[in-house]
Amino acid sequence: xxxxxxxxxxxxxxxxxxxxxxxxxxxxxxxxxxxxxxxxxxxxxxxxxxxxxxxxxxxxxxxxxxxxxxxxxxxxxxxxxxxxxxxxxxxxxxxxxxxxxxxxxxxxxxxxxxxxxxxxxxxxxxxxxxxxxxxxxxxxxxxxxxxxxxxxxxxxxxxxxxxxxxxxxxxxxxxxxxxxxxxxxxxxxxxxxxxxxxxxxxxxxxxxxxxxxxxxxxxxxxxxxxxxxxxxxxxxxxxxxxxxxxxxxxxxxxxxxxxxxxxxxxxxxxxxxxxxxxxxxxxxxxxxxxxxxxxxxxxxxxxxxxxxxxxxxxxxxxxxxxxxxxxxxxxxxxxxxxxxxxxxxxxxxxxxxxxxxxxxxxxxxxxxxxxxxxxxxxxxxxxxxxxxxxxxxxxxxxxxxx
Amino acid sequence: xxxxxxxxxxxxxxxxxxxxxxxxxxxxxxxxxxxxxxxxxxxxxxxxxxxxxxxxxxxxxxxxxxxxxxxxxxxxxxxxxxxxxxxxxxxxxxxxxxxxxxxxxxxxxxxxxxxxxxxxxxxxxxxxxxxxxxxxxxxxxxxxxxxxxxxxxxxxxxxxxxxxxxxxxxxxxxxxxxxxxxxxxxxxxxxxxxxxxxxxxxxxxxxxxxxxxxxxxxxxxxxxxxxxxxxxxxxxxxxxxxxxxxxxxxxxxxxxxxxxxxxxxxxxxxxxxxxxxxxxxxxxxxxxxxxxxxxxxxxxxxxxxxxxxxxxxxxxxxxxxxxxxxxxxxxxxxxxxxxxxxxxxxxxxxxxxxxxxxxxxxxxxxxxxxxxxxxxxxxxxxxxxxxxxxxxxxxxxxxxxxxxxxxxxxxxxxxxxxxxxxxxxxxxxxxxxxxxxxxxxxxxxxxxxxxxxxxxxxxxxxxxxxxxxxxxxxxxxxxxxxxxxxxxxxxxxxxxxxxxxxxxxxxxxxxxxxxxxxxxxxxxxxxxxxxxxxxxxxxxxxxxxxxxxxxxxxxxxxxxxxxxxxxxxxxxxxxxxxxxxxxxxxxxxxxx
Lengths: 402, 592
What we know:
The complex is a heterodimer.
Chain A: H1 10-13, H2 23-26, H3 40-55, H4 59-72, H5 77-89, H6 93-106, H7 111-123, H8 127-140, H9 145-157, H10 161-168, H11 172-175, H12 179-191, H13 195-209, H14 213-225, H15 229-242, H16 249-259, H17 263-276, H18 282-293, H19 297-310, H20 315-327, H21 331-344, H22 349-362, H23 365-389
Helix pairs in contact in A: 3-4, 4-5, 5-6, 6-7, 7-8, 8-9, 9-10, 10-12, 12-13, 13-14, 14-15, 15-16, 16-17, 17-18, 18-19, 18-20, 19-20, 20-21, 20-22, 21-22, 22-23
Chain B: H1 6-17, H2 24-29, E1 46-50, H3 71-75, E2 79-82, E3 91-94, E4 110-114, E5 120-122, H4 124-127, E6 134-141, E7 150-156, E8 160-164, E9 170-172, H5 174-177, E10 189-195, E11 204-209, E12 221-222, E13 228-229, E14 242-246, E15 252-254, E16 268-274, E17 283-291, E18 294-298, E19 304-306, H6 308-311, E20 322-323, E21 327-330, E22 339-342, E23 351-355, E24 361-363, H7 365-368, E25 379-385, E26 394-399, E27 420-424, E28 430-432, E29 447-453, E30 462-467, E31 473-480, E32 487-494, E33 506-511, E34 517-522, E35 537-542, E36 546-553, E37 559-566, E38 570-574, E39 581-582, E40 584-585, E41 590-591
Parallel strand pairs in B: 32-38
Antiparallel strand pairs in B: 1-31, 2-3, 3-4, 4-5, 6-7, 7-8, 8-9, 10-11, 11-14, 12-13, 14-15, 16-17, 17-18, 17-20, 18-19, 21-22, 22-23, 23-24, 25-26, 26-27, 27-28, 29-30, 30-31, 32-35, 33-34, 33-36, 36-37, 38-39, 40-41
């Protein structure tokens, strides 16, 4: 099955594979239920009911429906695939991955499943596991624009810039006006010292972006990352002026102001972003962090919870709740949230430290020491890695220990 | 970090790309703009004047660089104050760099005698304290209890201990004392502090080690866009510190390993000793640059246990290691427990820890209001002092970058920076008042070490800042321009059974009746950034003209209480003597 090219629309990402697999063929594998083999009609009815719920975006009903179907036909890869799609909609990425993995085992020939699986890993920020999925898609369909794009982006995020270029270059013609694409390419060329290509790509980015808010947003982000705060502010303000409702402009302004220590301004920007993008968790999370750092757990907790309602496994929101409850003296709750955060980010030295602090407050010194030891080990690893690539003293926001 | 749609993904992409992209390309694409200035804080009446020139201090720090400075040349200096000649006025010692490139450039440290009239005289040559190598920091301590503070200077190479002969001269006794701190291989020494860890009445000595930077080490690093500047310390291995036990015969013994504080990979930049858990024994705080901070709890048997993690201050509350430059201890909320300030690198706020009732340090810099204003500056030395004598400890922090070329890669970060002054509002919050506190906060410097002292004995604490590659900054506390002046009371301690300087003694002061305030000071050596302040304890009393009760707990265990202590006096408390005496200020010829 060929995946459609829809990488610019997140809603599209979850539907790389078809909703309805040919059940007439697959039903031949249906098992007996209570001694009786389900009829094709039963299978079609059950599948149709679940698919209808999915199309109606009634995800809990769709989940029940596909699970019911799988009781009738336990080896149906289509049902597993669609169940995976349902889980993606529910934000249950681990369940989605399990469903897609099962589907892939049952039907290794359908490359679309790999695309969904890769996307699920991608959304979990598990780029290492996402890469082979996209590679399998491309080995079955080398022209898949979406697989090229996502593979390139995954490699980019893994900082393997040459591999990113290798994945991106074949789709340059199709993506020559995609600002995100040009941005990643420009950076990747710079990283592998192809400076002329880098410069040309950035020039192309500016031309393609024109005086659009999107371009200003991208440049603002770039300057933000370069710690050129004045230029970042200039660009982000231009983006906001051009399109006051452009998603992430106010979020990034919030990040900038937070960095500059202008905490009230940062809070205002996050509040604005929440109004513009109420279904995105990031501003809730950042605003919650500001509240909890200011000692106001009463305001912080609902914001973290809102972020987690949108995306249940955000490690920083979970840790934020842990921190807030720790401050409130609700140490058991804090431990519970910090443990959940660590299930998602087991390599976070900081979260091990925070959990250790929580255990200390519970008087569980042995558990605390375990966490501190793990923190120390991770930080030592990070330091070793960092020493290899250190060039200066600016803090590395993406240090493995953070 | 949010993954997802195109815009969102781009944000994560950019953040991951960090400083290393071909970012110059972006610079060429769009011109930069300067940041808007920050909003002005509310004005307070106390101002500080820059009186450096007027005071006759002509010292200029020589950083010693030959082109792009190295981490060594960019790190110092510290500054330390003490009344070395016993005339009642605090003198100042400035530490200097050296010419490490055989260019024939002469540089030395400088001891300035306080003349008591607002001026200082360079007496280095007469005193014989020029230093013996590239200097970093200094501390004073009367290690032989002869009544004259001795001087210890940390250096690149062997350190130097100057014994104060009591006649205005000093003798280099480093070798005789065995206190050069080179025995564990450390070359790049940094902070030091005298403290009597075994309470035998003699000052012991902790000497910190920083990065193991050698003449063959990498000299500069790319801080972005190919700009080469000093490397961060983690580029080099760390160094061990040394703990010396004072043998009481003019010699010291290295007890680092026996005391269980041997850390081969330390990056110490500040050290301070204080009894954080109020068990009567001095503990040791050590701030590391880029690694966890240490809190060595005194086990009362000559050994220590690092309890920093368990006490909550090894890392920031989020678990990050600090680029820690300064240790300061003080009871800023007057709850009877010592709180902690550690300064941090730029783009990271400074850290204020409140020592909680539950027995651990609780980081409160956001609640206290120092997080935001300290985020964009690179903070070095500083500490607590009550500049307006309202009875609440305020905070001063010296700021300065470590990359002279930072402005080539950033329009918002600067090498020279304005220092920070925070007023304690008395409710757990601080308000930055730098911009309204006089011309002492008008000009940016490359600030490093800070010492607090009442140089003119007017009851108001002044500040001296050692700047890298520049003249120091002597800030005179002018007091309020108008209105009533708050009262103060000042105590100098003289130990008899305890160490002569009274280091480790704790003074509690109660004023204003049952509804009044209680304050506490502990006499501490070291602290700040490779520096040391006036050991006298200055208490602000607000409008109260008398302190109801003053209690001193000496390191020996002796407790003395004095009642109805009149304000606006400089008292001398001698261990075991029941009567308060007055400090004598010789140049003015009268007791105050």
